Amino acid sequence: MRATATATATLAALGLVVSGAPLAAAAPVQAAPAAGLQAQFTAAAKEFKVPESVLLAVSYQETRWESHQGRPSTTGNYNVMGLTQVDLAAVAAAQAAAQPEVDLRGDGDAKPRARAQAAQAAPVDSPALHTLDTAAKLINRPAADLRGDTLQSIRGGAALLAQLQQNAKAPLSTDPAAWYGAVVGYSNGGTDARSAAEGREFADRVFGTIKLGATRTTSEGQRVSLAADPAAAKHSPAVDRGVQTASRSAPRTALAAATDPIECPSTLSCDFQPAAYAQNSSDLSDFGNYSVANRTGADIDHIVIHDTEGGYAGSLATFQNPATMASAHYLLRSSDGHVTQMVADKNVAWHAGNKTLNMHSVGIEHEGYALSGASWYSEQLYQSSATLTRYLADRFGVPLDRQHIIGHDEVPGPTQSAVAGMHWDPGTFWDWNHYMDLVGAHVSPDSGYVIGGRVTINPPFSNAYRPVINNVPAQPANFVYLYSSPGGPLIGNGTQNAADWSDKAVAGGSYVVADVQGQWTAIWYNGQKAWFWNDGSIAAADNRAGQFVLTPKPGLSSIAVYGRSYPEYGAYAAAGVPAPDPNITALSATLPAGQSYVPVSVTPVNGDFYYAPTIDGSAAHDRTWVTGGQKYYPIRYNHRLAYVSADDVQLVAAPTNVLAAGERVQLLAQTTTGSVNAGANYSRGVWETFHALPAAGTTPDPKQRFAVLYLNGQLHAVTLAAGHVWTADRNLLTGEWSPWYDLQVTGLAGPLTAPATEVTVAATGSKMHVVVISGGRLLEATADYGTGRWYTWGDVSGAIGLPTGALTGITAAANGNVLHIDGLGTDGRIHVADGDYNRGAWGYGDVTGAVGPLTGTVTGLTTVAVGSKQHLLALVDGKVKQATADYAAGAWTSWGDVSGATGQTTPLTALVATYTGNSLRLFGLGGDHVLNANGDYSTGRWSGWMDTEVPGAAGPIDPVNTLAVAGTN
């Protein structure tokens, strides 16, 4: 794909007004990328006699070769080699100053809790937390250099690997397989490398990367490659460390049986270290840290991602203290991605701060310290977590999307009083794009934004998008800011603080498009229109067929929004269980009439409540699942999920067809790699992106010509390939193209005696006229869609007396039942053949004689008929000229300078045109891009030329050879 040539975006390509940049627009890249990252790996490997493949693979598995501008990860890793430097005193101070935990049990009771939770355990020191300092001493450089300089980070990592190799009394071998033990030690801080379990998962992944190779471009523009070396991995000790298969019915290994229950994919290193399940006093209801249950896949529909804000060992100790009153099903170690299960999946862990979500989710905690400036997570966390999430999703039937795989920051407060205390982990720097890619659920851009349709927030987690965040250097983030109006203040008196989730829409969240104004898109959010600056690269239209949105039922001015889905009071009485107080209580937010929101599921859920008040199940009706008749739809309401009563809403089909009505164009292009098509709807202000067309014929010409037109509400295209004329149709309801079929067969237009070299089309009534130059003659065949009949080729040249070879290029249009075929003659003049289908006669005219000659070389013609007028446009030395024939007045206007009126600066190599509404739409090839300019005949003004290949418009494509366009109102 080629880089775009101009900075125009989404709707600028439709000629709409673009507002100024917003307060929190993405910051520009401030510094040039570090020079020669690949060369730095090569130099450091040579200096310290470490195989370059090992050095590259270690870095890839630590950071994917990212420097993160010298900022720490959540576990104190720095720079491309992920070397660690953790100040334990600072961590302890941050933990002490942190806000107290909300009730992670999530009951949301009106009565305050009688006892505070246990404090987070102090971080546990180990050499694994100080590898950067160790490496700095080995290369005799200040630690700050290894944090901020990629070369010194790589040198330090290489020196540390060499030292670990020497400590093991192993040679500095050129064989990567000989370095397995050193790689284990790199992860665990130098513990006895070959016998220690910690670090072996990391080493296995490193050697898996060596086996398969890797290539990527970092966010700073550094292209780095590692060639595949299957032999190195084969001869290393790398093996799968899993102890449990991915199926509950599969037999367990001896180790798994001894530590039952381990529920973990077979490719991960997992163990089971139980969270506390014990009393805190003599009161049987005073216990921690989870509820015993018997959940099945039918009960689990969410996976919740957390950040511990504490080290692995300290967090594990905290969850093993019953006074903590909190737990999670899994805890992941940062250094190597090791997975520890703490609560069986069938039980209800207390992790989300919302009882409804706790009852219906699995919680995964990720090691992370409360570090100042921490802005990324280790690659080992991402890889292990994604593997675990995919396993859980497959096992329990959880959909692989961001409405079901959510962060703790997306869990709603169960009651209004709990909203302010809800968590915001994993935070603004969790790379949801990368995580969902690893899970196997990447967001794919769809056709243009449709008001009332769906859109998915999808900012690039790279230096291409760095929103302003208070007290944080410019860096990638996973959200867009939301404004009360285009260019106005942030919604709800929001701030640019990282922890303020109230004015942010996070990556992967799906919303309903409320409005579009230029490069601003509005979504329904928290009961209002919320606008975000949308250049097309930070949100993906989601116009898949068969989708639904929720809106209040007719007659309701607004409806209640809930933070949990509890059953009605009668359900508790029927189960013999006391109802919580309060029970069904709405949040202060509402969902007004006229607004629509995305349902998490199109099937409503029954309100339910799991009653488990004592540690031993001794209370009457203890461990009872109360299910009521009250049904709820979970929805994406704001940054967080919410619930609405199924009695209050109607499920309606989301509009998805951007080309169904209004002023539309269809643009076809032949690129160096194939044929593509895109559409624009000027009434709605949306584009669909370029999509590949079926190949025409067995040996398509890479420079084949196109022509296209709307007829009877459908799109019909013709093209030349292998000397034949082919046609295909696009169903605008489904967006699907038919296969191309050859017109030169009996029953259609019939065979030609010589290959066709030019083609154009026009329509009169229900007839499509296909006009070609074949053997130097002008021929025409007609498809009558009213009768379903084709008329074979007729000799237009013979009818008007044109000699063989008189025309070298043609274009056609029709006024009513009069077909106009304009052609560039071998004599350098422009000719026109008029076929009057009312009178059944052809005529001939000399256009050059009527409008005057053109100065320069004419390289292209295109014509558009509107009412009684025919607009003829010529491409002369890369500039556009226009003349108009008014058939009602019986006169031509002379050539006008369109290039001057549009401010054209880039010479064009091709030109096509169509007409929609009151505007003449020009499309041309300029500077290797498809450009667009619009002449509005209602105002008498031309727009400038705009690039259609920017994200949000038709999108980038390979270099284009030929174009065709058709428009309709």
UniProtKB/TrEMBL annotation:
<dbReference type="InterPro" id="IPR002502">
    <property type="entry name" value="Amidase_domain"/>
</dbReference>
<keyword id="KW-0961">Cell wall biogenesis/degradation</keyword>
<dbReference type="InterPro" id="IPR036505">
    <property type="entry name" value="Amidase/PGRP_sf"/>
</dbReference>
<keyword id="KW-0378">Hydrolase</keyword>
<protein>
    <recommendedName>
        <fullName>N-acetylmuramoyl-L-alanine amidase</fullName>
        <ecNumber>3.5.1.28</ecNumber>
    </recommendedName>
</protein>
<keyword id="KW-0732">Signal</keyword>
<dbReference type="InterPro" id="IPR051206">
    <property type="entry name" value="NAMLAA_amidase_2"/>
</dbReference>
<feature type="compositionally biased region" description="Basic and acidic residues">
    <location>
        <begin position="102"/>
        <end position="112"/>
    </location>
</feature>
<feature type="domain" description="N-acetylmuramoyl-L-alanine amidase">
    <location>
        <begin position="290"/>
        <end position="427"/>
    </location>
</feature>
<dbReference type="Pfam" id="PF01510">
    <property type="entry name" value="Amidase_2"/>
</dbReference>
<feature type="signal peptide">
    <location>
        <begin position="1"/>
        <end position="31"/>
    </location>
</feature>
<dbReference type="GO" id="GO:0008745">
    <property type="term" value="F:N-acetylmuramoyl-L-alanine amidase activity"/>
</dbReference>
<feature type="region of interest" description="Disordered">
    <location>
        <begin position="102"/>
        <end position="125"/>
    </location>
</feature>
